[in-house]
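Action item from last week, closing it out:
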Amino acid sequence: MAGTTRVTIDDVARAAGVSRQTVSNVVHGTGRVGAATAERVQAVVDQLGYVVHPGARSLRSLRTGQLAFPLDEYVEGKDEVFNLDFGRELTFAAGKRGYHVLLMVPSLEAMRDLIRSARVDGFVFSNLKRDDPRVALVTEYATPFACMGRTEPTQRQPWVDIDNAAGVRLAVEHVASRGHRSIAFFGYEPMNYWDTERADAYEASMKALGLAPHSVITRDEPASVARAAAAAISGDATAIVCSGDKLAEQVYEAAAERGIAIGRDLAVTGFGHDVIGRNMVPSLTTVRTPIPSIVELVMQRFVREVAGEPDAPGDLIVPELVVGASTG
């Protein structure tokens, strides 16, 4: 159709010689339409360049085709790389389901405004914290959501999470199988449940192997991390299991300053397999957080939430150990 006038459903109906309802059934894949008629209507749709008006679709379905993804508050800390990877995978997984991702500031007031304006179908969260106020807000407004990280037992359970204990156990057992008996743990002071789970899993794994545990714990601050990394390699440990790839990177730096060869003089493992861990030399043995698989499951949960389907227990994903040269 010439000019800039928007092609309407009535234009398509007239050109195809069918009713408005038939055109609607064809473009939305609903109702019963004969194959020949559907092909004729679709040909006219393609010829005229008809596009379903998003506002009209929203009025019919009460859905917007948008989900909000609040950027994490801790993007300058240890979770920065994870959030970037998660957001990228979320964009692709949402797009496969016809959803657009709306990035937003991590503000409860901004979330409340979005909910009240009905501009999104719901929210996806990453790195859920204990007693996360975002979950309390969406619960208050009965707004659909799904997340990476566990909600409280009394809340809805549309979550997917990594089995932190299983991941650390894989790392400890791996270095032990390489003959190491003095294995240290390098982790963060507990700010979130995964910090605690990883530290506890190390202790339990060492005791199960009949080995003496030794943990070096640091605050998530550059100066503290650097000092703790130096302390970790200055002891008797021949292997260090790190709670994250970023901590493993600090061990690499401290070892290089002291002429300690990673993989030969000292075995090191990480957790995450993020962009930092993937680019370390020698290659880092690390526990892979399968972000694409996790995000796919999160989107499945989100779609079910939007559809109002019954709640189900969360998904706990067992990670995989990626063996590199850092453990010899």
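Closing note: Residues 80-96 form the longest helix (17 residues).
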